[in-house]
Amino acid sequence: MIEQAGCHDAIIIGGGFYGAAIAIYLAKQRHLKNIVLIERESALLQRASYNNQARVHNGYHYPRSYTTAYRSRINFPRFIQDWPNAAKRDFIKLYAIARRNSKVTAKQFERFCTEIGAKIVQANSTSKSLFEPRLIENVFEVEECAFDSTRLAEWASKELQECGVQVYLNAGVTKIYKGKHETLQVEMQRKNESPDLLSCHNLFNCTYSGLNQFTGDFSGIHTGLKHEITEMALIKVPPGLAGLGVTVMDGPFFSMMPFPARGLHTLSHVRYTPHLHWNDAQGVDPYPKLESYEKSTRVDRMIRDVGRYMPAVLDSIYVDSLFEIKTVLAKNESDDGRPIFFEKHLELPGCYSVLGGKIDNIYDVLEKLEVEQFKSSSTQE
After folding, report:
1. Number of domains, the chain
2. What is the CATH number of the domain that holds 33?
3. How far apart are CA 116 and CA 74, in angstroms?
4. Domain span at residue 272?
5. Other C-beta atoms within 10 Å of 72: how many?
6. pTM score, two decimals?
7. CATH number of the domain encompassing residue 124
8. Integer Cα distance of 343 and 352 in angstroms
9. Longest Cα pair distance anywhere in the chain, in angstroms?
């Protein structure tokens, strides 16, 4: 094992959107120096940051979790302002309420949107005509957008370079130790190389589904997680649906959103998108489980069910599927809430684990970091 000289101000494990954004924040806003970011893939933002529905939420999706809805409503305009080049807004977004099996009625949904201050109007007759009226109670036009993860990755690479953050790709962390003089040590393993031992004052575990998968002195997180292998279908929709995003809710229904990174639409279905689920445990790494999973698409069943509500979807062309691990807090399974997970590890002072369920949650994470005191090689804030 090779021990690298010097102590870093911060090490971030995980090069998704959260890991990159935290590294940039620490460099630009907190003025930490000598920051390292470690990512297991060959490029940044290649896993959950890419393989999702690419939706920037504005609160509509969470009528059963007021806190999540309200935070999305507050964060939505901030995201649009901070990443305008990544935000796709040139489509009409519709939310339709099902007549049966929905957990909210159309009136309840409209009232909920008014309460959180989210824009909502009755959809026009052309939009309403796309839906089967026997199954859909009402249709609303709302304000939501999609994001292009490839543009976010370009932003992250540029900012990290300008901030002087050292990025290690194709590298993973296997062990975390408590070091000498209030430092932390991580064992980094790069492909076909001997392990390196890096030391730091502050450590950020932003590995999403891999939060619990370290040995050494890391005793794990104290909140239960649930993992799912999910399938996001990519489809080419017929011309009449090309300028639309659609969500039918609230229950066992579906969403169809533009996917800017591929110029297609994603299709997800509450019943068919989740393929397999299990409770998180140390030593059960979700990523090898995903790699060995037989990825048989369920797109036929998705389209067939969606076609009952929107017949035009039946003319869509299936292109591909994105399979990924989705990780949520087990305690929010019943209400669909998506708060951030932010934990300080008392046994490892200076070590944090961070998980966000939505891209706009990044602002909730940064607010948490604002009140933290970070040690550095030169000063102690």
Report:
1. 2
2. 3.50.50.60
3. 9
4. 55-147+224-332
5. 25
6. 0.95
7. 3.30.9.10
8. 6
9. 69
